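Per your request, structure below.
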């Protein structure tokens, strides 16, 4: 959270999602939850070194439980797609037109944005629960979190963090205001299995990579296998609650290790994280097809 200084500072409160478009503009998703400020998209032009735009997200597209987490930039249109896990029950995707400022909440409460009740998140060999300082233990409510768009901007891919299935829907349906909510849900298509994750990305050949929280790994599914097999790309003990997965201009997969499960929120108010919090890069699959081993 910024500390206001002299002049006209750009105030950021709680930035979770971040992505860069082809023009070199970095879009930051600020959910405003720490100070109760308005949720917004902040766009910074890296070429000019100046603010490009601020888009405040219409409160009508939010709920009292909204907690905006990730974003996907449409490569061909003025749209940003945002995952809002909210309280789990009211989980939804928000579609923002960055030119008009119009924001639309879609798929709220649909099965595709809900967590799988049979999945129990475990990291470092223990079940992850919310442990408050007063000793109260609760299972965190989660919904849709990982979200990504293909290189042509035709399909939006998404799923619940604690979900075993990946879904997709055509962006033309999400941006068409004439389509009723009950019709929109009929356009959802199942894609593949997925690990517990809150981050994913898609390469130019349509292969989808996941930051696997439970295994501490990067996994993938391949269209050449009809997305049938969840396979392991890389695994390392230093990868602890990975996130922020994206393919950089260098062609490498980049991601960070957050140790989120060791923060006070999950440990009765105690911080048991162990710095540093590294940023990693690794090779994605090459253009020619080859496979690593299947997940155990």
């Amino acid at each position: 959270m910024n500390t206001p200084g002299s002049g006209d500072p750009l105030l950021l409160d709680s930035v979770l999602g971040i992505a860069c478009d082809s023009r070199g503009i970095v879009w930051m998703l600020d959910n405003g939850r720490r100070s109760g400020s308005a949720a917004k998209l902040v766009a910074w032009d890296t070429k000019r070194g100046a603010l490009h735009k601020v888009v405040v997200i219409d409160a009508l597209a939010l709920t009292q439980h909204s907690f905006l987490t990730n974003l996907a930039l449409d490569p061909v249109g003025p749209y940003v797609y945002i995952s809002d896990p909210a309280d789990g029950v009211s989980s939804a995707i928000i579609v923002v037109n960055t030119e008009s400022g119009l924001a639309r909440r879609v798929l709220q409460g649909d099965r595709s944005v809900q967590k799988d009740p049979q999945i129990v998140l475990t990291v470092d060999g223990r079940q992850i629960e919310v442990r408050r300082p007063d000793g109260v233990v609760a299972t965190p409510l989660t919904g849709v979190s990982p979200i990504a768009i293909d290189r042509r901007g035709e399909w939006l891919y998404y799923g619940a963090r604690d979900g075993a299935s990946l879904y997709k829907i055509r962006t033309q349906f999400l941006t068409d205001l004439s389509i009723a909510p009950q019709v929109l849900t009929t356009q959802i298509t199942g894609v593949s299995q997925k690990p517990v994750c809150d981050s994913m990305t898609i390469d130019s050949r349509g292969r989808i990579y996941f930051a696997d929280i439970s295994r501490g790994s990067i996994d993938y599914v391949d269209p050449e296998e009809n997305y049938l097999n969840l396979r392991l790309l890389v695994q390392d003990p230093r990868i602890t609650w990975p996130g922020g997965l994206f393919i950089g201009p260098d062609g490498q997969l980049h991601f960070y290790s957050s140790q989120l499960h060791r923060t006070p929120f999950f440990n009765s108010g105690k911080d048991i994280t162990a710095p540093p919090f590294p940023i990693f890069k690794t090779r994605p699959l090459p253009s020619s097809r080859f496979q690593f081993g299947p997940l155990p």
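Confidence is low (pLDDT under 50) at residues 4-9, 288-296.

Regards,
D.
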